[in-house]
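Budget justification note: compute hours in this period were largely spent on complex prediction jobs such as the one shown. Inputs:
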Amino acid sequence: MNIIVCLKQVPDTETQIKIAADKQSIVTDDIKWVMNPYDEFGVEEALRLKEKHGGEVTVIGLGPKRVTESIRTALAMGADKGILITDDALEGSDSLAHAKALAAAIKELEYDLIFTGQRGVDDDLGIVGAAIAEFLGIPQLSLIVKVEVGEDGQSVKVERPIEGETLVITSPLPALITAQKGLNEPRYASLPGIMKAKKKPLAEKSLGDLGLDSSAFGPDARKLKILELTPPPARAAGKIIEGETPQEKAAQLAKLLHEEAKVL
Amino acid sequence: MAQGVWTIAEQRDGEIRKISYELVSEGRRLADALGQELTVVLLGANVKDKAGEFGAYGADKVLVADDARLEPYTTDAYVSVISQLVKSGEPALLLLGASVQGKDLAGRLAARLDVAMAQDCTAFAVEDGNLVATRPIYAGKAYAKVTFVNSWPQMAAARPKVMAINEPDPSRSAEVSDATFTLDDAELKTKVVDVIKDESGKVDLTEADKIVSGGRGMKGPENYNILEELADVIGASVGASRSAVDAGWRPHTDQVGQTGKVVSPNLYVACGISGAIQHLAGMSTSKIIVAINKDPDAPIFQKADYGVVADLFDVVPALTEEAKKYV
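Corresponding output:
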C-alpha cells in the first residue's frame, strides 16, 4: 500500500500563548514546536498498516524549515520518505490555501490512503483534510478511531464515534482519513530509528516546484480574516465554600447550587 | 447579491437534534440584524412533517431536501445537496452546528463552495453586513474575532449548547417548500454499514446539561462509582480528564479536554482535577463550574464558580446525599 501522511507543527500544548502587539497574531519567540498531536495518530496508523499490508509511507509536512524536525520524527518512527513544502509565500495562508499546496504535492505521488489529523490544535479549524480530499476528488472519512483495510486493498472500513453511537463506514480506496484521538497510541521513535531517519530521503518543494502561483497564497489571499485576538473571556470570580467539615461544605454547596446558581 | 441567513438543521433517525434550535434562534437574531430572511435547510428521508416546527423558533422558510439517500447522513450526499441549494439560493450566511456531523460536513462543504469557514464559534455578530464570529483558538488560550473576505456565503459552525434557544412562538409559522436537487448514485462513495449504539444509554457529554468529571485525584477506576452515584441523583453524565483516560481508568469517549470532547453544560463538577489548560479547553464555556480538590493551589479554582477545598472522597458522597433534597 502507498500511504501518505500530512503533518504540521503547532505550539506544544504546555506553551503559554501571548498575543502580539498587533493583536492579529501570537508571539512566537519562546514557542516549543511539536508535531500536531492528531497528525501523530495519522503517522502511527500509516505505519501499522504498512506493517500489516506492506508498502511505503510518505510524510508531507507544510510550513517553515523547522517542520523538517517533525518530518524526521515521523521518519524515525518508521516512515520511508519525507517531503517538506516550504515557501515564504505560504506564510499567513489560510486553510484552503494550505490544502491546495498539499493536494498539489500529493497529486505527484501514488497513493491508496492519505492520513491527516482531524484538526490542528492551533487554529482548531479542521478544514485541511477535507479540503485536500475535495481537491483530489476522493472520499474523506473524518474523526476516525478505527481503520481496517479490505483484503483486496481496494476498500477501507472505519469507525467514527458520534454522540451516543459509533458509525461503521466503508469507502473505496483511494480515500483520505482524518485521525481522531483513540485511533492508536503513537510509538516513540527508537534510537536505531532516529539513526536510520538521517539517511531517508527528504525533499523540499516550493510553490513554484508544485506549479502553483504564489498569488493564491499568503495574507492577501485569505478568505478568513482575523480582526482581533483577545485573551479568553474572564469568568466572574468564584467563591470557596466555607465549612468546618467536608459534610458541611457539601451541604452549603448543594444549597448554593439550588438557590443561587439554580442548576440543582 | 447574496441574501438571507441559512441554517442547516441536524436530524438523526427523523428526530431533530437540539443544536438545530440553537441555530435557528441565533439565525433569527442575525437575520434581524441584517434585515434579511431566515431559511432552515432540512435534509433527510421522510422528514417533511418536522419542517413546520422551525417557524415557532423564528424561521421564515424551511427548505426540505427529502430523499432516501439522505438517511443516514453521509458527507457525499449532504455536501452535494447543500452545495446545489446554496448555488441556486445564494444565501449571505450559512450556519451549521459544530457537532461531530457538523465537523465532518463543514470542511468538505467549504472546499466544495470555495469559501472560508469559522469552526466551533461561541458568538456571532453582524458588522457592515458581514458575519463576525468569535471562536476559541489554541485550546481556548486565546479567542479570535474573525470575518470573511470575498467569501459567499459566509460560513460558520456554532459550538453546541452555547447559543440561547428562543421561546417558541406558536403564532409564528414558516413557509415550507421542497428543495430542487439531483443526486447521482455515482457520487455517493461512502456507506454507513452499521451503527453501534453506546451501551450505557447515557447522554453524550457534548449534549449533557450536567457533567460530573473525575481526574487523577480519583486514584483508580474503581472509585468512579461515587461519581456515578452523584450523577444518577442529579441527572448528569460522567466525564474524565486526560490523566484518567491515559491511565486506562475511563474510555476515550469520556475524555473532556483539548484532545477530548468540548462540553458546555449548565453544571460541570470537576472532582480531583487540577485544571490544566488542556482540560479547561474542553469545559471553559460551562455555565457553572464547581471544583472539588484537596489542593488549594489547584489551578481549577481560578476558573470555578464554587470551589470546595477538601477530600473528594468525603465531599462527593455527602454532596450526593444533600442533592437528594433538591432534585
